[in-house]
Write a structure and sequence with these properties.
It is a single chain. Helix content is 68%, strand content 6%. It is α+β, with helices and mostly antiparallel strands and 191 residues long. It has one domain (37-190). The chain has a 4-stranded mixed sheet. Helix 2 (38-67) crosses helix 3, helix 2 (38-67) crosses helix 7 (160-173) and helix 3 crosses helix 5 (124-151). The radius of gyration is 28 Å and the shape is extended. The N and C termini lie far apart (75 Å). The relative contact order is 0.12.
Length: 191
């Protein structure tokens, strides 16, 4: 009988504790408020479109290899973007090396910029190679940024400088440590 009473008391105490804990968890808490500024929404829209274009590139490449056909029919605009994305992938290793060596930096407009460098100024062949690859990369970036704007009616109304700033931020974040980056106010700093 004593065992039964003890068990009942334990059950009652446990239930009481559970009710008390439930009461504590029901206390009034202020809801979390996150303010999403217009720029954050704009960033999501720009980057979402950009990532969708990248996925389309992989889908086109995959369908080509699965079908065993030479070409997938796509619009000239999409072909231009596909070529630009592939050009970026092709030049990525060289550009990362240029960034590590300090030859180029990511400016605040979403483009690469050649930085003053003794190593480049003393080697005309190397300077020509850097200039050529930077020009290719910037042309590809301009094509991609332009296409992102074309694909979104809402972006056509936005300030183009803001859209370029979003790409600049993305490019700067994706750059290796030690890369020269241009701040929004125009100063150059190392990442």
């Amino acid at each position: 009988m004593e065992d039964k009473n003890m068990r009942s008391r334990i059950i009652l105490i446990t239930q009481g504790l559970l009710i008390a804990l439930a009461g504590l968890s029901c206390s009034i808490k202020a809801p979390e408020v996150s303010v999403t500024g217009e720029k954050t929404a704009l960033e999501r829209e720009v980057l979402g479109t950009y990532h969708q274009m990248e996925e389309d590139t992989w889908m086109i490449a995959s369908s080509r290899s699965v079908r065993g056909e030479g070409e997938v029919k796509i619009s000239p605009e999409k072909r231009k973007v596909l070529d630009a994305l592939q050009g970026q992938k092709f030049n990525k290793d060289d550009i990362d090396e240029f960034k590590r060596k300090g030859y180029v930096g990511e400016n605040n407009e979403g483009l690469l910029e050649i930085r003053p460098s003794d190593a480049l100024s003393g080697d005309a062949e190397r300077m020509n190679m850097v200039q050529e690859i930077v020009q290719e990369e910037n042309d590809d970036r301009e094509i991609i940024m332009g296409r992102v704007i074309e694909l979104n009616d809402s972006l056509k109304k936005e300030n183009q400088n803001e859209i370029h700033s979003i790409f600049a931020k993305m490019n700067q974040e994706n750059s290796p440590d030690g890369t020269w980056i241009q701040t929004p106010d125009g100063r150059w700093v190392k990442k």
